[in-house]
Amino acid sequence: xxxxxxxxxxxxxxxxxxxxxxxxxxxxxxxxxxxxxxxxxxxxxxxxxxxxxxxxxxxxxxxxxxxxxxxxxxxxxxxxxxxxxxxxxxxxxxxxxxxxxxxxxxxxxxxxxxxxxxxxxxxxxxxxxxxxxxxxxxxxxxxxxxxxxxxxxxxxxxxxxxxxxxxxxxxxxxxxxxxxxxxxxxxxxxxxxxxxxxxxxxxxxxxxxxxxxxxxxxxxxxxxxxxxxxxxxxxxxxxxxxxxxxxxxxxxxxxxxxxxxxxxxxxxxxxxxxxxxxxxxxxxxxxxxxxxxxxxxxxxxxxxxxxxxxxxxxxxxxxxxxxxxxxxxxxxxxxxxxxxxxxxxxxxxxxxxxxxxxxxxxxxxxxxxxxxxxxxxxxxxxxxxxxxxxxxxxxxxxxxxxxxxxxxxxxxxxxxxxxxx
Length: 421
Description:
single chain; mainly beta; 16-stranded antiparallel beta barrel; 48% strand; 2 domains; Porin
């Protein structure tokens, strides 16, 4: 090992030991190689919201609580009100895998701000349901040289189904869809992905539960009567999905994609739940214009106390609730800086005195429908900044069972600014 003249001089007068210097440099070299290729990115998401026709249920009361007990994925920002909002600051630290057969890497995503609230209910020391800090992703990625390469993800990762994602800047619209609201968001487990060829990829995995939260477990694992090895494994959550992508030979259809998947497992206060998803994106011969479609379905079995309206008897029972949505998207990149996106959606779900897609069953529960239209105008004024104006209208006017102080429609306008680095 070579040493510089300054180090040799210090060694000559006994100020340092060459052995200790060599060991220190070896450790530094190892540390440098471990972080080589690591990238840091993120975003600062802000907005101004104006509820032109503010409402109570079915909108504001439940959009902070989807069936998984999480406020993420809400179509509206239920933990914010009219005015100026910091939505979230997201910090991503990643080391992607290279092309070697035994490649490895990692992903870490940290959230700060109101959109992190309830994302990670298991957070300790200032975390939890009301915390403005959450760990969104923290996983190790590994490649096993089987066939074209089997990629493994171990730790905490996003759900493998869904048309939209948590990061608003990666979606065509600022507010989320109703379909996103009923999807699982986060898992702790193992996910395997295999790319058969450039057009076909499949994924399958197992996780603790459908619920968000680091190492979130099914209630049975906390029950003293079920503390056996089998119960820890039989209540796990399974998932699978596949994606088809059109090759270059398809001409203007190149890049069209279809994906579908399902997640089945256990959820808080649930005897079993499953999500089914299918999504499609298709470009057109018109430059910059593409269309999309998405279907989400949730079926949830829950034990709860309810009232039989025919006899006015109250008793314990079990019901299977379901919710589903159909969404159509159009995205038009008019110019390099100007884009116009539209989403229309129909949703169906259980409605109670706290609204559509309520997180828990209520005594007055029934099925209800909702229609939604969202239009978004985006223009790039500044480098690295997403700037857009959005108008959204939701209507549940065909439901006549809301209280007198509850409205059945809502119209809101948003200004959204996101800096991505």
